[in-house]
Design goal:
alpha+beta, 3-stranded mixed beta sheet, 14% strand
């Protein structure tokens, strides 16, 4: 009988798991208890506020850095565009400046025509001249007006003065070489003759007046 009781108790003891034995004996915790014990305790409100402030500061720093990079990129784009425009304008100016003698040649040929040449030759020259002027005008070339204008030292270069009673003082009498502007900037001044107003026999000229004023002693 005692042997039969031992045989019956032994299988029951073998069916109990190690975790259950430990639980019954007050040993190691079960899986749920171990999992629950691994969770950190909730942060305090002070810790949460400090973490929030840290995240806000980091966000502001990243945002400021982004704004600086965007500003640097925009400045680089504008500088590159300005340099490209300056290079294009410089190249255009040099090309047009090199073509000005050709325009002068057309002007002289069309003003002083040779009777030995047929009219068809000059018609062809006028056609080529108009096409050339049209191309340069689209590039920004503008001829300086001189007919009936008063002398402007910013636009004209006077190489000769003549007395013309029927003209205003400092009025342009004749254009010797045409001047040009390129997009409102002076490319070459116009070379002109300028009229001087008629003066009385006893009145001094402007140059004489200037020399006399320089000879006068300073009374201060």
């Amino acid at each position: 009988m005692e042997q039969e009781k031992e045989m019956l108790v032994k299988p029951q003891a073998e069916g109990v798991t190690e975790a259950e034995k430990n639980s019954l004996q007050g040993g190691a915790p079960t899986g749920l208890e171990a999992a629950a014990g691994g969770v950190a305790a909730p942060s305090t409100p002070a810790d949460m506020a400090a973490a929030y402030e840290e995240l806000q500061a980091e966000k502001k720093e990243l945002y400021d850095r982004l704004l600086r990079k965007q500003a640097e990129l925009e400045n680089l784009r504008r500088r590159t565009q300005r340099e490209k425009e300056e290079f294009r304008q410089h190249a255009t100016e040099e090309l047009i400046r090199a073509l000005l003698p050709t325009l002068d040649g057309f002007d002289r040929a069309l003003k002083h025509r040779n009777a030995g040449l047929s009219e068809s030759v000059y018609q062809g020259m006028e056609l080529i001249y108009r096409e050339l002027v049209g191309v340069l005008s689209r590039a920004g070339l503008v001829a300086i007006e001189t007919a009936g204008k008063l002398f402007d030292p910013h636009l004209h270069q006077a190489v000769e003065t003549v007395e013309a009673p029927d003209r205003r003082d400092q009025e342009i009498v004749e254009e010797l070489q045409r001047g040009y502007k390129l997009k409102h900037r002076l490319l070459r001044p116009a070379i002109v003759k300028v009229a001087l107003a008629a003066r009385d026999a006893g009145s001094p000229t402007r140059s004489e007046q200037a020399a006399k004023s320089e000879e006068m002693p300073d009374t201060d």
